[in-house]
Every structure is written in structure tokens, then in C-alpha cells.
Design brief:
The protein is α/β, with parallel strands linked by helices and 213 residues long. It is 38% helix and 17% strand. The chain contains 8 helices and 6 strands, in the order βααβαβααβααββα.
């Protein structure tokens, strides 16, 4: 029995283009973000395995990304999307809406080096991992209804995806601090025999941006 998770980051937003910290705030996708998400949907259509569950963060940028992808997959049988609060983006506390240049540089350094150091008034990577652990428990329980293979699509955010990758692989919080997660990146992880530790099939795949689709 195998469990596969396809983990997707949302498309570029206005805040992303301005290098502005989003966290639980929101901004719409840019034109480039929508176009790359459309390309992602067409790319997924060429290879993605049948989907059993489709989870989306409650934040608007993830919801918009999911809708665009699903429109491109309209001829493919996929389940209805389910909004899941556990997979929301990291809470950036006092720094939400600000750009990097407005950050205290010592705080910025610690956030990049210390996974248990939280944004002032917000969360740390370790906090997000705890949410990821609860979400994984939910997926593992759900997978029991599928005797041979279970495949979940998760549309979320950069910090959550990196933190969840840390949980899935068992590599610990420093994995989240060392890997890249670009807009519309696709990550595939798989577990065999219901083992709670997953292997990486693909990470930060942005092939669709360069392909003629």
C-alpha cells in the first residue's frame, strides 16, 4: 500500500512581487502568477496519478491557485476541494505587510538559522511543523479507506510546504531552512506500507514554467 502526497505552492502574488511578507494576510495573484498556475495545471494533467483527496489552505492565494489548476483539470476526475486550516501559511506576526528592509536584521538572521525562533507575535517553523504533524495524522487515518493506493493533493504555501516536508521526511526542522520553494512549485513524496516517513520523488519542480504547454 502506498501513500503519495503532491504538495503545491500557490502562484505569485502582488505581495510576492513587492517582496512583502504575507503570512496570514492576503493579496491576489499577479498576471504572471495566474499564467504560471494555468501552465502548472496543464503540466499536472500530463502525468498526475488519480487523486483521492484535494486539500487547500483557507487563504485566498491558495484558493485562487487551486481553482485555476482545477479548471485546467476539468476533464480529469478529481474530488471536491476541502479547505484545511492546518495547512495555512506561517503567522508572521508583527512583520506581516512589511518588506525585508523594514525587518530587524538580527530577527531576520535568527529566523533563517533557528527553526524554533518565532516571528515576533507570530509562529516559528517548529510551530508550523506541529500543525503539519496533525495534518499528517489526518491523512494517514484517511488513507486507511484506500487498500492499495492513496493520493492527496495539497495546495498551500512556501513555509508550510517546507515545514511539512520536514515532517514527512523525518529530516527535522533544518530541512525547512535549507530547501527552496518557488511559486507554483510541485513536490511529490511517497510512503510505502503506510510508513509515516516519506521519500522525496520530486522537490521544487517548476518544469511547467519552461515547457511549451
Amino acid at each position: 500500500m502506498s501513500i503519495e502526497i503532491t504538495l503545491i505552492r500557490h502562484g505569485e502574488t502582488v505581495f510576492n512581487s513587492e517582496k512583502r511578507i504575507q503570512g496570514k494576510l492576503d493579496s491576489p495573484l499577479t498576471d504572471r502568477g495566474r499564467k504560471s498556475t494555468e501552465r502548472l495545471g496543464r503540466y499536472l494533467k500530463t502525468w498526475m496519478e488519480p487523486v483521492d483527496s484535494w486539500y487547500v489552505s483557507p487563504l485566498g492565494r491558495a484558493q485562487e491557485t487551486s481553482e485555476i489548476i482545477r479548471h485546467e483539470l476539468k476533464d480529469v476526475q478529481i474530488p471536491e476541494p476541502r479547505t484545511e486550516n492546518l495547512i495555512r501559511e506561517i503567522d508572521c506576526g508583527d512583520y506581516e505587510g512589511k518588506t525585508d528592509i523594514h525587518m530587524n536584521q538580527e530577527v531576520r538572521k535568527r529566523l533563517r538559522l533557528e527553526p524554533d525562533f518565532p516571528y515576533p507575535g507570530g509562529e516559528s517553523i517548529v510551530d508550523v511543523m506541529k500543525r503539519g504533524e496533525s495534518f499528517l495524522d489526518k491523512l494517514m487515518e484517511e488513507s486507511k479507506s484506500f487498500p492499495k493506493k492513496y493520493h492527496a493533493v495539497v495546495v498551500s504555501h512556501g513555509n508550510f510546504n517546507r515545514s511539512f516536508g520536514s515532517v514527512l521526511t523525518g529530516l527535522g526542522p533544518y530541512f525547512a531552512l535549507r530547501v527552496i520553494q518557488n511559486n507554483t512549485a510541485v513536490n511529490q513524496l511517497i510512503s510505502v506500507d503506510r510508513h509515516p516517513v516519506f521519500r522525496i520523488l520530486n522537490w521544487n519542480d517548476t518544469t511547467h514554467i519552461r515547457m511549451k504547454l
